[in-house]
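Service request form, structural biology core

Requester: graduate student, group of Dr. S.
Request type: structure prediction, single chain
Budget code: on file
Notes: please return the result as structure tokens.

Sequence provided:
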Amino acid sequence: MNVLCRSHYLPLFARLGAYQRETLDRISWSDDRQLFEYFWGHKASLLPLSSYPLHRWRMRAAERQDWKDPDVTAPWSVVVGMQRLAEERPGFVDEVLANVTERGPLTAGEADPGGVRRKSSDPDPDPSTGKMWNWQDAKIAIEYLFCAGRVAIAGRRNFERLYDLTERVIPASVLRAPEPTAEEARRELVKQSARALGVATMRELTGSTSGHFPLPMATAKQVINELVEAGELIPVRIEGVEQQSYLSATAEDRPVAARALLSPFDTLIWNRDRTHRLFDFFYRISIYTPAAQRVHGYYVLPFLLGDRLVARVDLKADRRNSTLLVPTVTAENGIPDSDLIDPLAAELDLMAHWLNLDSVLVTAQGALGRSLSQAVDHR
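Core staff response, request fulfilled:
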């Protein structure tokens, strides 16, 4: 999403303030990389290189192509597509890998040995490809190789992934690092989930669609029981939550003095059910909602103040006029406008500066919109 800025930049801005986005690019997609891309850091994520060995067991599971193995958590288009390619185009994945070996880094389209890409408008689309993504054979093959750790993301061209051999992307010292067993890796990943979330249910830690690092249910139960026995996780009960929750042994009980506009994909609110349960904040992204049915705007960022989500702010970067636009702003029930105006105006001013925009323009209607506009103008 680029209506405001690319979404992967926003979580760091929420935590660090006006950092240099070029720095994130450099440590993600250059020879000076400290991060790598992979699927299963709760969906596609940038992860620290130090955690690469923790995902090798999952890569090996994907490489076996035993799609019934619960450890294999490849995207649906890869699973179905690879099953079809095995029958219709045996050897095609090896051809794609050879093409990347000879010519990489390449985009998915460039990785096709035949150099032909079917367009979404072509007749008789492949029924095995995702309806939304319309993945082609080369895309299926290259994403499988990515899941299996045979190729890695070397960079981006107009934000399209560039794939290359893993040994040409991931530093040799990382690839030579001792590889933990699958059991050790799972325990460490769940510990990381718990540290990131603080307190969470088993599904929030490991669920297939909502977990931080997804695991099969039976495996998740075993890992969590082992961590409880080791004192790494503490079983707790949260008022209003029926499920058993777990507290990270490293969690700190301290006041939170946060002030942040959160990307719709921010880790804090990514699990919508958890956001609703813990913050009493029902949130759904509106970009796929028809305009007439939108309540709070198009690209709506929750506003975190202290330890509460207190408002929803629709934002757009008008780059032609170098202006950060605020078409809609809505306070949560029970939150006085006076509590919001100054901190939100300051955060908007900071975001505009970070995005190299010259001004903030609040066109939101209502008393809150007018007051926020005045506060922004006086900064």
